[in-house]
Design goal:
Elements lengths: L26 H25 L9 H26 L4 H7 L1 H34 L3 H11 L3 H18 L1 H4 L4 H8 L1 H16 L7 H33 L2 E7 L4 E7 L13 E6 L9 E4 L9 E6 L3 H4 L10 E7 L11 E7 L3 H10 L7 E7 L8 H11 L2 E6 L10 H8 L5 E7 L1 H13 L7 E5 L3
Parallel strand pairs: 7-8, 7-10, 8-9, 10-11
Antiparallel strand pairs: 1-2, 2-5, 3-4, 3-6
Length: 463
């Protein structure tokens, strides 16, 4: 049974002043800046290959294919290291791009890197075979079984292909999140298995100590943030804040709020709109970490998340006992006041996507008439935190509209509904959170109404 409400509803901490800097640049500018850094390092890798592959050495098809195999191997491995950074949950990078964009980059970069590594294996074996006048199958057997560290590298490549296969949307939709997550952990094993063969057989490294040093530096630069932010920082946070569940409160028939308290919460550094990866240290949940946005502005007494019953993990939150220890990894996300550029704000929520918007409505600076909130739900029971939203609307002078009904019933958030309920939104910042399809349709409606892309801020919560 859910625990009775024990956490006091204290006032939220004062909202931080709006800031300037890279985090406030338009999304396209921020993405271009990060892409430029990635490309610059990639050029260095290509230059290393070009320096060690003089044009005069590419006289036969065998040497050309082998050189192409070297290049695809170097670039593919470099993109794997970029992948490590993208999944390292580096807070500055999260704040710069946002989790939803990092997820897109991660998916696309993973596809590129795996394709390049497969091409590397195919081209290298083909080139060796042409040079040694051997068939492809014969040369494959020779390379895998006779070359140093190549058997381990082959297993590593197979793991990368497996990870790529389960990442395809059709396969991903059939897997539980935790199954998909644990399969992806094999990427670290694949990297370890593939590392040694690069120095043992790679023509760019065998007789080039400087290249080996540069390659090792790239590995260190990729893994250092991962180790720090995925392991060291959460361990330090756990020891410092000693988070535990204060209470679990029902929020309607299918949702609960979990209040988490601890020590030195004023040092957590979270902002409204951000999320943590929450790990509840019970016998059956300690190994699972799930992302949940803060559903109330953070303060120095407690943090709160609100979740809807949408799976095994969320369904079990109602039974979490007070006193349960918690590890919260974060805060993450760029869905914050830092993105705001205009005085007026439009908030659009779909379903449980209301949680970060409720926190933003509580803490965003503004005065009466600055905020308009549209909350889309299929049924009245799906309206989570409605009482709190009504209280906030009254206190802050915000306009709140509940759009309830099945799809196509006239309750959809389209351009005409936004214009009718919130007026001219061209001079607004728009914060939108909900399922991917809902977010995409609202973004299209806002474009139709003339809201610039740089003032539409979204947070996707589907992983």
């Amino acid at each position: 049974m859910a625990q009775a409400r024990t956490a006091p509803r204290r006032a939220a901490a004062p909202a931080r002043p709006l800031q300037t800097g890279p985090a406030t640049w338009p999304r396209a500018t921020r993405e271009a800046a990060v892409a430029a850094v990635v490309a610059a390092a990639g050029v260095v890798v290509i230059a290393m290959w070009a320096h060690d592959t003089p044009t005069g050495s590419l006289r036969t098809w065998g040497t050309r294919l082998t050189a192409a195999g070297d290049l695809t191997g170097l670039i593919g491995t470099y993109l794997v290291l970029v992948q490590i950074v993208l999944m390292g949950r580096v807070p500055p990078l999260e704040r710069l791009l946002g989790m939803d964009r990092l997820a897109v980059w991660h998916r696309r970069n993973g596809q590129y890197s795996i394709c390049l590594l497969v091409a590397h294996a195919f081209l290298t074996i083909w080139g060796y075979g042409l040079t040694g006048h051997a068939g492809f199958a014969t040369e494959t057997r020779k390379v895998v079984l006779d070359y140093p560290d190549m058997l381990a590298a082959t297993v590593g490549l197979g793991l990368f292909v497996l990870i790529g296969a389960v990442s395809v949307r059709a396969a991903r939709s059939r897997l539980r999140y935790q199954t998909w997550y644990f399969i992806h952990l094999y990427a670290y094993l694949a990297i370890a298995l593939s590392f040694a063969h690069q120095f043992a057989t790679g023509t760019d490294f065998i007789t080039h100590p400087a290249n080996r040093g540069l390659w090792i530096v790239l590995y260190v630069l990729a893994f250092a943030p991962l180790v720090w932010f995925r392991f060291v920082a959460p361990a330090r946070s756990y020891a410092r804040h000693r988070l535990r569940v204060a209470s679990v409160v029902p929020e309607g028939p299918s949702a609960v709020s979990v209040y988490v308290t601890g020590a030195h919460l004023d040092e957590v550094g979270a902002e409204s709109g951000q999320f943590f990866l929450w790990r509840f240290l019970t016998r059956d949940r300690w190994w699972q970490a799930h992302p949940f946005s803060l559903s109330a502005a953070p303060n120095d007494q407690w943090l709160r998340i609100t979740a809807k019953d949408a799976g095994d993990f969320t369904a079990g939150l109602a039974s979490v006992k007070a006193g349960t220890r918690v590890i919260a990894e974060g805060p993450y996300g760029a869905f914050t006041a830092r993105r705001r550029r205009e005085r007026k704000v439009l908030l659009v929520a779909g379903g449980i996507g209301i949680t970060p918007l409720r926190a933003l409505l509580e803490s965003l600076p503004g005065r009466k008439g600055d905020f308009c909130l549209l909350y889309r739900a299929s049924t009245e029971d799906d309206l989570v935190l409605r009482g709190e939203l009504d209280q906030l609307a009254e206190r802050r002078g915000a306009v709140v509209h509940y759009l309830v009904g099945p799809r196509g019933s006239g309750a959809d958030v389209d351009a005409s509904a936004i214009r009718h309920l919130c007026g001219d939104v061209r001079a607004c910042d728009a914060y939108v959170c909900g399922p991917p399809g809902f977010t995409a349709s609202v973004r299209a409606a806002l474009h139709t109404l003339g809201v610039p892309a740089g003032r539409i801020h979204t947070e996707g919560f589907a992983l």
